[in-house]
Amino acid sequence: MKDSGHDLLQKIAAKDESAMETFYNEFHMVVYRFSLKRMSEPSDAAEVLNQVMLEVWRTAHRFEGRSKVQTWLLGITNHKIIDSLRKSTRHEGDEIPENLEDDTERSPFEHVSLSEHSEYIKRCLEKLTDHHRQVVHLAFFEELAYGEISQIVDCPEGTVKTRMYHAKNALKKCLKQFISS
Questions:
Q1: pLDDT, tens digit (0-9, with 9 covering 90-100), for 77-115
Q2: Domains contained in the chain, number
Q3: Fewest CB atoms within 10 A around its CB: which of 71, 126, 133, 134?
Q4: CA distance 69 to 71
Q5: Residue 155: CB atoms within 10 Å
Q6: Does 92 fall in a domain?
């Protein structure tokens, strides 16, 4: 079964610039969000995004259709992030950007309560190791299955499950500290 990007990749492989523009518009936020979770600065995440899209332009012909386009794309992104982190002397950032979109009506009390809880979650996510934060992001924010995550991070599915288990336990323990205080 083809997903939405498969046909675009075939056109990109034929050097169709409009297909590349459409592909970028469809997938750039997925790549940027994933990069931002691991990079110290938004500008670093934007640089990874540019590198990934250039790689897509150069290597679209290599996509074999054995996985979803998003899985293939996030695999490229993961490798570009690792390369960037190796080259950089900087460490992971302290900030996770807040979700700016709010499509529901909430009372001022609900806003305060949600922002307090999101701050707790943000702090706990920051305490996770890079590997644990990565699987949490891919599973919960990108809604990917463990098999897809294992392809992206280039490790066995069992390792992904183990990382998720330890990440959930660490998050529970951390959140209990905030909630009980």
A1: 999 988 888 776 444 443 434 443 444 454 444 544 555
A2: 2
A3: 126
A4: 5
A5: 15
A6: no
Q: Say if 141 falls within a structural domain.
A: yes
Residue 172 sits in a domain whose CATH number is 1.10.10.10
Q: Structural domain of residue 137, as residue ranges?
A: 108-180
39 and 72 in a single domain? The answer is: yes
Residue 150 domain flag: yes
CA distance 78 to 131: 11
Contact 70, 30 (CB under 8 A): yes
- Say yes or no: 164 and 122 in one domain: yes
Phi and psi, residue 66, nearest 5°: -80, -10
